[in-house]
């Protein structure tokens, strides 16, 4: 019997004589396709019985009432039903030897594409009104695409991949794309395996299994644009059918064809192609032939054109106006197998076996997992056919056979005799014990002793433990590589992986065996020393044998490391006493640093007295650069000339020099940009002759204080007590304006010392103007040490982490001009002048009548006097 299918995806309504019947076929029988509207599409089928005298049976989808499950009940305009058509028997309830199912693709259904199933029934009465209708299934069952614009159903193929007498379905979606970590993919083919049984009514959804999706490399490849079946092209004994998929636009439009082999089930199907035929691999027939384009745009297979018993493949490349015939080579189908006699290798045996067999396991350490072997067969001196000249004799492909891709090799395993009972399965019971304090924490103080000692005991209470291994996890930042002792002999550490030490305990570790281990962990010293936070140790044992109880295979503890280190900060002013006086200069008059005043150097020394080295130490110094003032800017005090430098002297006498930091260096370090008189730093300064004998002046400090005792008790002294002190932290007393200088030390070894110099000038003008009548002014800078808390350093005495550098500034009396006494004649002249002014004022007042008092004769006064006298007379 024969069945002709015609798809008409663009058939117009009212065109009974249409010669062009859509994208699939062109034949005159489409005169019986009424009812297609708006490119909804349709399908026409004709059944040819074997009996030439029997009547052909025609079926079509157009004109069927939607109430009778016509296609218009599901499909709309521009769905392109019939873009691809095939038929087969998949397992639907209505299928039998007379009835089959037509599969039709509608590439634009729901904008994703779909494949619908149309029952082709031969049992209808020819006189029935609906005998020629091709309708949907009762539940309108279809398969739909998953991506917008993927053109699911562009190409379909019906093929029995597993030879179970139920057809399977291949559906192409050439415009589906995806981008993953594996690359960019363009196009896909969905493989729907049939469930392999005939389903009952209303079980159409269970006919096919979950699809397998294969994708094509290259986002523009259009993988799945063409699909064809090849038959059993590899000649396997199971007669599984194979297929080819075209990707015409892969490799920049050159194209390629992918060959896939059938398989027993969807679980055993290999999604990787067994062969990829690209356009570049094909030889050119002549030199004038251009490179192929769109190779794989159309495919046709399943026919043996050269008669060698293997189906060939015809491939179209429309952009090159070329059709290529690929002839299949004969396949020698070989099944490689090994004879399994349950052989086991005795690992405790002698070396009397064959040399080649001995080398397989002589250096092996894994006795649990079997040895894997692969036995394969290959053709010796395999010949490859060559392309004949144009017009030459066709090559006989029977002279160039190939081996089957799968089946010509066999992989098998050989077990070891582990001596672990009848089942040859080793079940061990390893137990790890270690010395531990009651609270689970070790406390150790490092000083003279710089190791942490831990002892371990490993037991095996069951069968052999193969590749028994102890793993010790430690902090590699704080600890060196551990040293192991086993029965007074060192134990080799097999390997290190980061902070994990791996120790082999035996292969195998026999039953009831015990292993004692002692570990010595040296604390890291020097610049590589890490943070001193509590150390956590972890240890666990395992083997390649099966373990009964994993709860006692691990152990952990925390070791609190106490590091003792005594840091000391000292400070000194060089010189400790300076004098100010002489001529006062403003900022605009100054050019050199010596114009400011005498040199004052504050030196801070940081010393680590041990017994442990420290890291990340910070020195903060509050520097009094201006006197206190209600204004934003005060008068200069100690004018800092250079960025403070710190010089670290290591125990090996090497020196490290670097600068300290501050927030506003341009505003605090020589903001006037004064020039240095001498770059060597040995320049002469103002009033240098008065500082020749500093020792003598230090001895005379008490005498100077007594000499100016009146100044101490004056009201000005109250202000001086505030001026000579700077707050240790933030200048909280507000007597001087200070900024903070930060000096950071990455590492301080034991007995190492660091010196920080603050080179400044005493601002002479400020002290001459404001403190000329004061005994002395004490100017302080304060420093403090700050330790990184995460280092775990503990100090017993922290009071020596603070220091002050004090500079005493004395006024140079001869150099300060004193106020001269007032002459006596000035006093007499001032007194006479005052008397003269008084006489003039008296004369003026006298002339104005100021000293005369005239009593006015007012009538009221007389009346009051008369009344008073009358009252006296009447009383008498």
TrEMBL record:
It comes from the Eukaryota. It is a single-pass type I membrane protein. The keyword Repeat applies. Keywords: Cell adhesion, Disulfide bond, Glycoprotein, Integrin, Membrane, Receptor, Repeat, Signal, Transmembrane, Transmembrane helix. One of its GO terms (molecular function) is integrin binding. It is found in: Membrane. InterPro entries: FG-GAP, Int_alpha_beta-p, Integrin_alpha, Integrin_alpha_C_CS, Integrin_alpha_Ig-like_2, Integrin_alpha_Ig-like_3, Integrin_alpha_N, Integrin_dom_sf. GO terms for cellular component: external side of plasma membrane; integrin complex. Residues 567-811 form the Integrin alpha third immunoglobulin-like domain. FG-GAP repeats lie at residues 138-201, 209-269, 281-343. The chain crosses the membrane at residues 822-846. GO terms for biological process: cell adhesion mediated by integrin; cell-cell adhesion; cell-matrix adhesion; integrin-mediated signaling pathway. Residues 420-560 form the Integrin alpha second immunoglobulin-like domain. SMART domains: Int_alpha. Belongs to the integrin alpha chain family. This is BMA-INA-1, isoform a. The gene is Bma-ina-1.
């Amino acid at each position: 019997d024969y069945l002709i299918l015609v798809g008409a995806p663009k058939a117009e309504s009212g065109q009974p004589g249409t010669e062009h019947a859509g994208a699939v076929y062109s034949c005159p029988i489409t005169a019986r396709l009424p009812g297609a509207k708006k490119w909804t599409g349709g399908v026409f089928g004709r059944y040819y019985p074997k009996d030439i005298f029997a009547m052909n049976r025609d079926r079509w989808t157009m004109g069927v009432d939607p109430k009778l499950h016509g296609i218009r009940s599901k499909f709309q305009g521009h769905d392109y039903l019939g873009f691809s058509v095939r038929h087969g028997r998949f397992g639907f309830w209505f299928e039998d030897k007379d009835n089959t199912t037509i599969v039709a693709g509608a590439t634009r259904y729901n904008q994703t594409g779909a494949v619908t199933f149309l029952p082709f029934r031969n049992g209808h009465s020819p006189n029935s009104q609906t005998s020629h209708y091709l309708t949907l299934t009762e539940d309108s069952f279809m398969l739909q695409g998953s991506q917008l614009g993927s053109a699911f159903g562009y190409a379909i193929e019906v093929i029995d991949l597993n030879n179970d007498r139920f057809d399977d379905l291949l559906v192409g979606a050439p415009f589906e794309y995806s981008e993953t970590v594996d690359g960019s993919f363009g196009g896909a083919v969905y493989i729907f395996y049939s469930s392999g049984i005939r389903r009952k009514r209303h079980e159409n959804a269970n006919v096919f299994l979950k699809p397998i999706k294969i994708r094509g490399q290259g986002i523009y490849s259009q993988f799945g644009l063409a699909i064809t079946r090849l038959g059993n092209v590899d000649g396997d004994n199971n007669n599984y059918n194979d297929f080819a998929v075209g990707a015409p636009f892969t490799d920049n439009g050159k194209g390629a064809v992918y060959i896939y082999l059938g398989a027993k089930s969807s679980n055993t199907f290999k999604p990787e192609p067994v062969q990829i035929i690209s356009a570049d691999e094909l030889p050119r027939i002549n030199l004038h032939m251009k490179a192929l384009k769109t190779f794989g745009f159309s495919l046709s297979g399943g026919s043996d054109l050269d008669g060698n018993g293997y189906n060939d493949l015809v491939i179209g490349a429309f952009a090159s106006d070329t059709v290529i015939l690929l002839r299949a080579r004969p396949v020698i189908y070989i099944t490689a197998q090994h004879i399994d006699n349950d052989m086991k290798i005795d690992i405790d045996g002698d070396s009397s076996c064959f040399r080649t067999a001995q080398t397989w396991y002589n250096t092996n350490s894994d006795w649990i997992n079997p040895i894997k072997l692969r036995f394969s067969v290959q053709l010796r001196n395999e010949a490859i056919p060559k392309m004949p000249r144009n017009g030459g004799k066709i090559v006989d492909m029977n002279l160039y056979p190939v081996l089957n891709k799968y089946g010509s090799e066999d992989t098998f395993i050989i077990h070891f005799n582990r001596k672990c009972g009848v089942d040859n399965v080793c079940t061990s019971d390893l137990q790890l014990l270690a010395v531990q304090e009651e609270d689970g924490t070790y406390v150790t103080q490092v000083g003279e002793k710089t190791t942490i000692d831990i002892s371990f005991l490993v037991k095996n209470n069951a069968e052999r433990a193969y590749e028994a291994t102890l793993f010790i996890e430690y902090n590699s930042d704080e600890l060196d590589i551990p040293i192991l002792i086993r029965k007074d002999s060192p134990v080799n550490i097999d390997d290190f992986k980061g902070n994990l030490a791996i120790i082999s305990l035996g292969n195998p570790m026999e039953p009831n065996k015990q292993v004692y281990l002692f570990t010595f962990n040296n604390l890291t010293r020097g610049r590589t020393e890490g943070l001193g936070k509590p150390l956590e140790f972890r240890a666990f044992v395992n083997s390649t044998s099966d373990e009964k109880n994993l709860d006692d295979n691990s152990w952990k503890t925390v070791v609190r490391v106490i590091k003792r280190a005594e840091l000391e900060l000292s400070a000194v002013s060089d010189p400790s006493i300076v004098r100010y006086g002489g001529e006062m200069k403003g900022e605009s008059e100054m050019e050199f640093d010596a114009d400011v005043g005498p040199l004052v150097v504050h030196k801070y020394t940081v010393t680590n007295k041990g017994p442990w080295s420290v890291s990340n130490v910070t020195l903060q110094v509050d520097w009094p650069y201006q006197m206190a003032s209600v204004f934003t800017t005060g008068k200069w005090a100690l004018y800092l000339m250079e960025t403070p430098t710190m010089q670290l002297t290591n125990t090996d006498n090497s020196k490290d020099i670097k600068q300290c930091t501050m927030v506003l260096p341009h505003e605090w370090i020589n903001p006037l940009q004064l020039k240095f008189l001498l770059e060597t730093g040995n320049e002469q300064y103002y009033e240098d002759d008065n500082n020749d004998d500093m020792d003598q002046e230090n001895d005379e400090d008490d005498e100077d204080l007594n000499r100016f005792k009146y100044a101490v008790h004056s009201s000005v002294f109250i202000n001086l007590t505030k001026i000579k002190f700077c707050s240790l932290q933030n200048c909280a007393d507000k007597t001087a304006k200070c900024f903070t200088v930060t000096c950071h030390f990455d590492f301080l070894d034991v007995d190492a010392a660091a010196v920080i110099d603050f080179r400044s000038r005493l601002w002479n003008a400020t002290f001459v103007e404001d403190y000329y009548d004061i005994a002395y002014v004490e100017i302080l800078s304060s420093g403090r040490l700050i330790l990184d808390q995460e280092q775990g350093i503990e100090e017993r005495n922290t009071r020596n982490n603070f220091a002050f550098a004090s500079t005493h500034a004395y006024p140079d009396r001869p150099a300060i001009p004193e106020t001269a006494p007032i002459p006596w004649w000035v006093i007499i002249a001032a007194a006479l002048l005052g008397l003269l002014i008084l006489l003039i004022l008296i004369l003026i007042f006298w002339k104005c009548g100021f000293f005369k008092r005239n009593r006015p004769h007012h009538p009221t006064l007389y009346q009051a006097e008369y009344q008073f006298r009358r009252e006296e007379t009447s009383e008498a």
